[in-house]
Design goal:
The protein has 11 helices and 8 strands. It is α/β, with parallel strands linked by helices. The protein has 2 domains: 101 residues, Rossmann fold (3-Layer(aba) Sandwich); 106 residues, Rossmann fold (3-Layer(aba) Sandwich), CATH 3.40.50.1860. The longest helix has 17 residues. Bound molecules: D-glutamic acid. The site of D-glutamic acid has 16 residues, from helix 3.
């Protein structure tokens, strides 16, 4: 059994990719809405929440756990691996490497503010985006809008504020660095236009799950 958790509905985009790749696998998904959003919590709170979620999923029979949240991955996955040595953990990382490979102009990385400020993301940027313009943007407003299922009009207004024309004009790749964002990929696509390629990590995470399960 594969266990998946996120602060809310975001991790469903990861669940979908795993279901596509491994249709036979049993999956249990924990949408931890009570603790939404993780991005406003302290490091020790996020770790405590991650441990609680892990125990819940283990009790349900999970042997492999996907931390389907960028924020929880950067702040808690190493801690989980240390505390649950018999469980395989797979996290989510923004697709900065593929973005660096395909971008010719500039890269936008859109995440939750806490993930945007993390040293892990800065390391990825240093490693894979040399010589490119990078717009590292965190928006809790957009994460909340997705979780609360706001309508297209509200989403568009937030996008206008978060990704102004000036930034779009200098970019050709947009990395979705929060698992909530692929859920509004169509709205984002419509807003940024055809010149910007949108990428996320869902497929890569599913492949990693397959690999770890030896399937
Ligand atoms: N889906 C989470 C992420 O990928 C949402 C962030 C949050 O709960 O603050 O970062």
């Amino acid at each position: 059994m594969i266990g998946i958790f996120d602060s809310g509905i975001g991790g469903n985009c990861i669940k979908r990719e795993i279901e596509k790749l491994l249709p036979e696998e049993k999956i249990i998904y924990l949408a931890d809405k009570n603790n939404f959003p993780y991005g406003t919590k302290s490091l020790s709170q996020i770790r405590k929440i991650a441990v609680k979620n892990t125990n819940y999923l283990i009790n349900k029979g999970a042997k492999l756990i996907v931390v389907a949240c960028n924020t929880a991955t950067v702040h808690a996955i190493n801690y989980l691996r240390k505390n649950f040595p018999n469980i395989t953990f797979i996290g989510v990382e923004p697709a900065v490497k593929p973005a660096g490979l395909i971008s010719k102009r500039g890269i936008i990385i859109l995440s939750s503010p806490k993930a945007a400020k993390s040293k892990q993301l800065l390391n990825l940027m240093n490693k894979y985006t040399k010589g490119r313009k990078v717009f590292n943007i965190g928006s809790l407003e957009l994460v909340k809008a997705v979780e609360n299922k706001l309508g297209n009009k509200e989403i568009k207004m937030i996008l206008e504020k978060t990704l102004p024309e000036k930034i779009l004009n200098q970019s050709d790749v947009l990395v979705l660095g929060c698992t909530h964002f692929p859920l509004i990929k169509n709205e984002i696509k419509k807003y940024v236009g055809k010149k910007i390629k949108i990428i996320d990590s869902g497929k890569a995470v599913a492949k990693q799950v397959k690999l770890k399960l030896n399937l």
